[in-house]
Design a protein that fits this description.
This protein is α/β, with parallel strands linked by helices. 31% of the residues lie in helices and 22% in strands. The chain starts with a strand and ends with a helix.
């Protein structure tokens, strides 16, 4: 089954005060960690949606086998980046794993677990990693939801599409809380750097 991966990397990082995706952790930009995990997974293709400081984001990913989609409407919210990414996918993509550029500890193994769970039950509308009962990221969306993605507005993301439809969503247990941790404030980044030392 052809499952693509999209990395959302277009936001303005208002809570960080600078572009969080360009901040370094373990000597690598946050967005590069996410890209490496996606490329190391079984996803058939990896797409990065850029917007704010797009050229700088692209530069951090130079030399990787990644396809880029620029979202000129990034200031209008997360939904516009999700739409731009989904619209760029080839027709053979049966679903897409949506990764956030500020979650650098999500591993290829987690991405694979979500993809494999969906491939085993392709009638599901989505698959999500679950840590101690809590839904995390990345979320895998079936192609059956792509039309609904087009109707999203503002800062709504993949999760909004699943509200009230939990029974149709595959929950994939994971053993690491990385699926819950985004580094979107200076304090969160500082904690991650301390843990890395």
């Amino acid at each position: 089954m052809s499952i693509a991966a999209i990395i959302l990397a277009a936001g303005r990082s208002t809570r960080m005060g600078s572009n969080k995706l360009l901040e370094e952790l373990d000597g690598k930009a946050l967005v590069r960690h996410v890209a490496d995990a996606a490329l190391g997974s079984i996803a058939r293709s990896v797409w990065v949606v850029t917007g704010h400081e797009g050229e700088s984001v692209r530069a951090r990913l130079d030399g990787l086998g990644i396809r880029f989609v620029h979202n000129p409407d990034f200031a209008l919210g997360l939904s516009t980046s999700l739409k731009a990414g989904v619209m760029a996918l080839p027709a053979e993509a049966k679903g897409v794993v949506v990764l956030l550029g500020d979650m650098p500890r999500v591993t290829s193994e987690v991405i694979n677990s979500v993809i494999q769970a969906f491939e085993a039950q392709p009638q599901a509308i989505a698959a999500v990693p679950v840590y101690q009962g809590e839904w995390g990221n990345p979320v895998l969306l079936s192609r059956s939801l792509f039309g609904a993605v087009a109707a999203l507005q503002g800062d709504a993301g993949a999760r909004k599409l699943l509200n009230g439809r939990a029974g149709e969503v595959l929950e994939v247990p994971v053993s690491n809380d990385a699926v819950l941790i985004d580094l979107d404030t200076p304090e969160a980044l500082a904690r991650a750097r301390i843990q890395a030392d």
